[in-house]
Amino acid sequence: MFIEINNIQKQFLNKDQSPVDVLKDINTTIEKGEFISILGPSGCGKSTLLNIVAGLTKATSGDILVNNKKIEKPGKDRGMVFQQAALFPWLNVMDNVTFPLKKEVPKREAEERAKKYLQMVQLGKYVSHYPHELSGGMQQRVAIARALAMDPEILLMDEPFGALDEQTRSRLHTQLETIWTETKKTILFVTHSISESIKLSDRIIVMGTKPGTILQDIKVDIPRPREEHKKKIIELEEHIMSYLKTEIDKVVSEELAI
Amino acid sequence: MNPNIKRLIFFAAVIVVWELGSRLELWLPTILPSPTMVGEALMAGFLDKTLIYDLIASFQRLAIGLVISLILGALLGILLAKSKSADETIGTVILALQSVPSIVWLPLAIMWFGLNEVSVIFVVVLGGTFVMTLNVRMGIKNVSPLYIRAAQTMGSKGIDLFTRVIFPASIPYVVTGARLAWAFAWRALMAGELLSTGPGLGYTLRYASDFGNMSLVIGVIVIIGIIGSIVDQLIFSKIEKSVMQRWGLET
Ligand SMILES: Nc1ncnc2c1ncn2[C@@H]1O[C@H](COP(=O)(O)OP(=O)(O)OP(=O)(O)O)[C@@H](O)[C@H]1O
Ligand SMILES: [Mg+2]
Fold it and tell me: Which of A14, A205, B16, B55 is the most buried if burial means most Cβ atoms within 10 Å?
């Protein structure tokens, strides 16, 4: 197994110091090169799980192994793309993308590598632009290029296209799929969009909320390119929808109770 | 209408009224000399180079004092932002000191260093340091956690994280701190020079006043005001604006 997630539990402390279970009994394994979507309603702990894999947050108990090595802290084997692009505004596009390569790779080589990935996200012409001169979708593509530039084995993406409009998002889906086929990365993709997860992933991990648990692990057996199989997509979408509906109802009724 | 044109018309009008009032002897020249007399006094000062020496001397003190206070202020600010204990102890002292007008330190400085350059520079340093400290501290504390997390996933930590992410991210606050430090230092310098020995703009101001040279008094005040606003408007405002834009804090 390439990634093993063993019995992850996560509790946060409430304001009154009482613990709340955010993640409970999370167990799964992921093969090298798989494209996995983590799908679930808002607040179910998707970001928390991804942050634990990234090494940014510590689990209360349980562990995660990558290549049989336990994850303790962030590392360059795991690149992360956040919901906001998180580019450094004081650096231009080139310097943002070469940020993780400084000190390790000679400048020339770093810049060549950056160019390669910027071209992959079709931003080869924007190397000397600053983040504030780019649109949201372009910033997100730079963030993807930046994560790819350090050549991680795993790409963690936390609703990377959540803030974008439908057309841009759809274009980026196609680009991401191409990148995935070209680079053979293992991708963990967090989303709360059912269609997005069906369009992109090999497997969909459906999470429920309060506490966050894995409800279902669905293999997406639809050949790529998937746009050509509308009927299968709709079937799967309805299947997942019915699962999620009960979960969302649970959240809504709890929120209304407060 | 272009605000610059408005300003120009306004200042022209003020000068015309002032000149007319003086000619019609609405007030005595010993109370308020006419613009022409002020201009002549300034011209004489520049021709015999005394005002030039004053400017050079003042700027020298300011430069030394400001550089020291920017460096000292930044270091203190980093310390306060990074160490909770320092913040809870030194931090409160600095907050208190910041509310003390720096000129009140001059008598103390004179006892320590004598009535000389060092005392004036000391007052300038005290004038600029604390406001810089508080701004740098704020800047570092307000760095978006998103930047830090992003950098961590790219293998950055410790000193590298500080120099490549935390400090650059706080630059907008650093620039504001520097601007305020300059303003406080400039005020402290003029106050200090008024009470010390020359050359220097403040010293010449007092000297002119002692000898009843009202035209020169007004002339020097005008120079002090012009320098203050030029540095603020032409230098710091511009830097601040471009930094704010680049850092995405303003559109
Ligand atoms: N630092 C924290 N302290 C306390 N509670 C937290 C903290 N971070 C997250 N939580 C709680 O944990 C739960 C899961 O949060 P998380 O951000 O992982 O959800 P999510 O599934 O990513 O939701 P969304 O789709 O809205 O991004 C939420 O109820 C949230 O309030
Ligand atoms: Mg989230």
Answer: A205
Q: What is the pLDDT of residue A176?
A: 86
First to last CA, chain A: 43
For residue A251, is it within any domain?
yes
The answer for residues whose C-beta is within 8 angstroms of residue A202's C-beta and 6 or more apart is: A34, A35, A36, A219, A220
Residue A213 banded pLDDT, cuts 50, 70, 90: confident
Average confidence (pLDDT) over B14-36: 90
What's the one-letter identity of residue A41?
Answer: P
B10-24: b (≥16 Cβ within 10 Å) or e:
eeeeeeeebeeebee
Asked whether residue A122 is domain-assigned, the answer is: no
Residues of chain B contacting A, Cβ within 8 Å: 146-147, 149-156, 160, 164-165, 168-169, 171, 245-248
Total domains present in chain A = 1
ipTM value for the complex: 0.87
Q: Is residue A146 part of a domain?
A: no
Is residue B116 one of the residues assigned to a domain? Answer: yes
The CATH number given to whatever domain includes residue A168 is 3.40.50.300
Please indicate whether, in this complex, the C-beta atoms of B155 and A75 are within 8 angstroms of each other: yes
Mean per-residue pLDDT, B83-110: 90
Over residues B153-158, mean pLDDT = 91
pLDDT grade, residue A258 (50/70/90)? low
B147 contacts in chain A (CB < 8 Å): 86, 88
Domain count, chain B: 1
